[in-house]
């Protein structure tokens, strides 16, 4: 794991070392956070974290008794009440709480742990390779230095977009939090379509994976908008134009994705109700 110039977050506890918590932790260590300053509290952490525990990250099945400078809440939204109930002694007046739990509001976190500095963040799993993007909202108690620390931690996995209103976090969740799943489904569907067209399955999957990954990389590196990159593929009266007529029909990809994102946003809002 490559180390860049280090940074400190004081004593940091990660509550929930699963897919998302583990991906963020990997990003922090790669960005130079001292492994010995981090404690993962999880009765059953992701197997992939074994390597980080060997590198010095602490693992506990119950919360530490000492006050922590930062606590990152990365358990399932439905588990948060129970998991946070053990944090009492670890939360001090100056502790920064960062929650990534979908739908869980700042008010509900304050209800669980008291009036503290709370950042509600929504990362995504490409954080695992430092290619995530995170939306973040800070409550009024988060001062400049805490915001800078939260930004440092979150930006270890990719760019951070601070949003002015908490409601936007549910929208971020529906677009980029859940978004990687939509892209993986696109790759799966493209491979299946290739098989239906007559390709051998393993070859179809290789073509689909590289197409999605290559198009994504081109989109990030290019200064052109996605629409222009799409036009660059589309020869007049060619094959892409024929496919896009299907995908861009009135009931095509755009409206389907709009409905999917709306469903995810609604679910995030439901999770806020408990
Ligand atoms: N997976 C994703 O793509 C994203 C997930 N999130 C949020 O991250 C949070 C975690 O999601 P995942 O990592 O996907 O779930 P996960 O199931 O992979 O990880 C949750 C972890 O919490 C642990 N856990 C359960 N009860 C606990 C307790 N009482 N104390 C400590 N740890 C406990 C589990 O053992 C597990 O390792 C959720 O709130 C989710 O909304 C946010 C953005 C993206
Ligand atoms: O599916 C979920 O609820 C979480 C939040 C965003 C991605 N995974």
From TrEMBL:
UniProt keyword NADP present: yes
Q: Which GO terms describe its cellular component?
A: cytoplasm
User: EC no.?
Assistant: 1.5.1.2
Any Pfam family from its record, for instance, is: F420_oxidored
Record carries keyword Repressor: no
What this protein catalyses is: L-proline + NAD(+) = (S)-1-pyrroline-5-carboxylate + NADH + 2 H(+); L-proline + NADP(+) = (S)-1-pyrroline-5-carboxylate + NADPH + 2 H(+)
- One of the record's GO molecular function terms: pyrroline-5-carboxylate reductase activity
Q: Which residues bind NADP(+)?
A: 15-20, 74-77
Pathway of this protein? Amino-acid biosynthesis; L-proline biosynthesis; L-proline from L-glutamate 5-semialdehyde: step 1/1
Domain (Pyrroline-5-carboxylate reductase dimerisation) ranges: 166-271
**Sequence ranges assigned to domain Pyrroline-5-carboxylate reductase catalytic N-terminal in this UniProt record:** 12-103
User: Which InterPro entries would you find in this protein's record?
Assistant: 6-PGluconate_DH-like_C_sf, NAD(P)-bd_dom_sf, P5C_Rdtase_cat_N, P5CR_dimer, Pyrroline-COOH_reductase
Q: What does the UniProt entry say about where the protein is found?
A: Cytoplasm
Q: Which terms does the UniProt entry file under GO BP?
A: L-proline biosynthetic process
Keywords in alphabetical order, please: Amino-acid biosynthesis, Cytoplasm, NADP, Oxidoreductase, Proline biosynthesis
Per the record, the domain of life is Bacteria
What main location does UniProt list?
A: cytoplasm
> Would you identify the family this protein belongs to, as annotated?
Belongs to the pyrroline-5-carboxylate reductase family.
What this chain does, per the entry, is described as: Catalyzes the reduction of 1-pyrroline-5-carboxylate (PCA) to L-proline.
Query: Which protein are we looking at?
Result: Pyrroline-5-carboxylate reductase
UniProt gene name: proC
């Amino acid at each position: 794991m490559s180390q860049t110039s280090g940074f400190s977050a004081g004593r940091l506890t990660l509550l929930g070392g699963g897919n998302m918590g583990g991906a963020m932790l990997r990003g922090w260590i790669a960005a130079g956070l001292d492994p010995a300053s981090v404690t993962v509290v999880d009765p059953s952490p992701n197997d992939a974290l074994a390597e980080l525990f060997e590198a010095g990250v602490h693992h506990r099945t119950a919360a530490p008794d000492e006050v922590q400078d930062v606590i990152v809440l990365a358990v399932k939204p439905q588990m948060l009440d129970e998991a946070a109930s053990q944090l009492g002694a670890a939360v001090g007046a100056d502790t920064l709480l960062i929650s990534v739990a979908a739908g869980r509001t700042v008010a509900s976190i304050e209800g669980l742990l008291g009036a503290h500095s709370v950042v509600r963040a929504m990362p995504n799993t490409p954080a695992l390779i430092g290619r995530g993007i995170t939306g973040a909202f800070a409550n009024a108690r988060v001062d400049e230095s805490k915001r800078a620390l939260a930004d440092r931690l979150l930006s270890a996995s990719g760019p951070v977009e601070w949003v002015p209103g908490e409601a936007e976090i549910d929208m971020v969740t529906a677009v980029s939090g859940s978004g990687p799943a939509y892209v993986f489904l696109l790759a799966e569907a493209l491979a299946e379509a290739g098989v239906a067209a007559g390709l051998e399955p393993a070859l179809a999957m290789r073509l689909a994976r590289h197409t999605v990954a290559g198009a994504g990389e081109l989109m990030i590196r290019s200064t052109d908008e996605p629409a222009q990159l799409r036009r660059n593929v589309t020869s007049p009266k060619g094959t892409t134009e024929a496919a896009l007529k299907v995908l861009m029909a009135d009931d095509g990809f755009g409206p389907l994705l709009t409905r999917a994102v709306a469903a995810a946003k609604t679910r995030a809002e439901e999770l806020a109700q408990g």
